[in-house]
């Protein structure tokens, strides 16, 4: 028997995401990201202690790759200058470009990818707040680091405050180094390119982009190697928590925003599309209660054919 749904109760398909609702959400998360970085810049002495602790841990583990990379970037302008442009710009260009590309051409995958990115970013804010860290370039010179952003500032728009434009250094937190969301966001971009790019070139870019970004953040003395590791760990945690965030958002939306509005049924005879208005009819009947109108109440003919008279049709069984 074919399944028929009661009119007015069909659930609408999942609503399509719209850019005018997505854009304010992304702007809100980025505003929280920027505000969180600013709130975490109070304890400079503690940030320096945390930076030196990371440096000591890396030396003990023999993973302090920042020193040789920073010396290379400082000595070779043809490497250091492009690296500074890479650090100062791609972070803010590639990530939103991939979000727009997913929204327009991979809409089915967009929501999960966006939720993963935003969840990881908010986790990173917790790290900035709980563990303000002085980057290598701001340590005392005796520790052997050179700020390449300051060294090559005449080639770009930035000054001595990392990638902030000249005169706007007070609007950024230079002690928000742990975790490195430059590396975290680059890893997100790499996964998106690898999974959804579809060509060998995009897959190669998906591998190269996070690797080069990791080298750049260390060579420019903006991050320690352990900052990069923490950035990757934050993205892993965000990936695991993203389904939970999505389900929670769906429950909240279902509670406060109904998915469909029931259509009130018209009970009038003229407007009803059901012939019997809910009454059952037997074979041969076209109008409900036909037998009552023909024979009167209590005068319904017997089911026996002989009681119906000669030539009368047998009752339908």
Could you describe the 3D structure shown?
The chain is mostly helical. The chain has ten helices and no strands. Helix 5 crosses helix 9 and helix 7 (181-196) packs antiparallel against helix 8. The chain is globular. The model is unreliable at 1-15, 267-276 and 297-312 (pLDDT under 50).
Largest sheet: none
N-C termini distance: 21 Å
Helix content: 55-70%
How much β-strand is present in the residues? under 5%
- Total number of helical segments? 10
Structural class: mainly alpha
**Nearest-angstrom radius of gyration?**
34 Å
- Round the mean pLDDT to the nearest integer and report it: 76
Shape call: globular
Q: Tally the beta strands.
A: 0
Order of helices and strands: HHHHHHHHHH
Topology overview:
Blueprint lengths: L18 H21 L4 H18 L4 H10 L1 H29 L1 H24 L17 H4 L29 H16 L3 H20 L5 H32 L33 H6 L22
Provide a brief overview of the structure:
This protein has 317 residues and is mainly alpha-helical. Helices cover 57% and strands 0% of the residues.
Pick out its properties.
single chain, 317 residues, mainly alpha, 0% strand, disordered N terminus
């Amino acid at each position: 028997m074919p399944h028929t749904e009661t009119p007015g109760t069909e659930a609408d398909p999942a609503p399509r995401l719209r850019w005018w609702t997505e854009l304010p959400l992304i702007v809100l998360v980025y505003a929280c990201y920027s505000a969180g970085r600013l709130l975490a810049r109070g304890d400079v002495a503690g940030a320096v202690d945390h930076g030196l602790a990371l440096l000591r841990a890396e030396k003990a583990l023999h993973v302090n790759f920042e020193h040789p990379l920073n010396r290379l970037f400082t000595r070779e302008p043809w490497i250091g200058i492009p690296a500074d442009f890479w650090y100062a710009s791609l972070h803010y260009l590639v990530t939103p470009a991939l979000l727009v590309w997913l929204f327009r051409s991979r809409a089915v995958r967009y929501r999960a990818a966006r939720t993963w990115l935003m969840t990881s970013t908010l986790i990173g804010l917790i790290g900035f707040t709980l563990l303000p860290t002085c980057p290598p370039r701001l340590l005392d010179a005796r520790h052997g680091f050179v700020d390449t952003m300051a060294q090559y500032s005449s080639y770009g728009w930035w000054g001595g405050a990392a990638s902030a434009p000249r005169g706007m250094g007070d609007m950024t937190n230079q002690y928000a180094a742990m975790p490195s969301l430059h590396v975290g966001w680059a890893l997100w971009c790499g996964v998106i390119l690898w999974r959804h790019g579809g060509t060998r070139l995009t897959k190669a870019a998906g591998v190269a982009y996070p690797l080069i970004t990791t080298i750049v953040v260390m060579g420019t003395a903006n991050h320690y190697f352990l900052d990069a590791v923490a950035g990757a760990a934050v993205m892993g945690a965000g990936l695991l928590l993203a389904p939970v965030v999505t389900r929670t958002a769906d429950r909240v939306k279902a509670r406060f925003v109904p998915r469909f509005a029931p259509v009130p049924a018209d009970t009038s005879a003229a407007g009803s599309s059901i012939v019997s208005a809910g009454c059952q009819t037997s074979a041969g009947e076209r109008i409900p209660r036909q037998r009552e109108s023909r024979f009167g109440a209590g005068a319904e003919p017997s089911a026996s054919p002989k009681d119906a008279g000669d030539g009368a049709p047998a009752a339908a069984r």
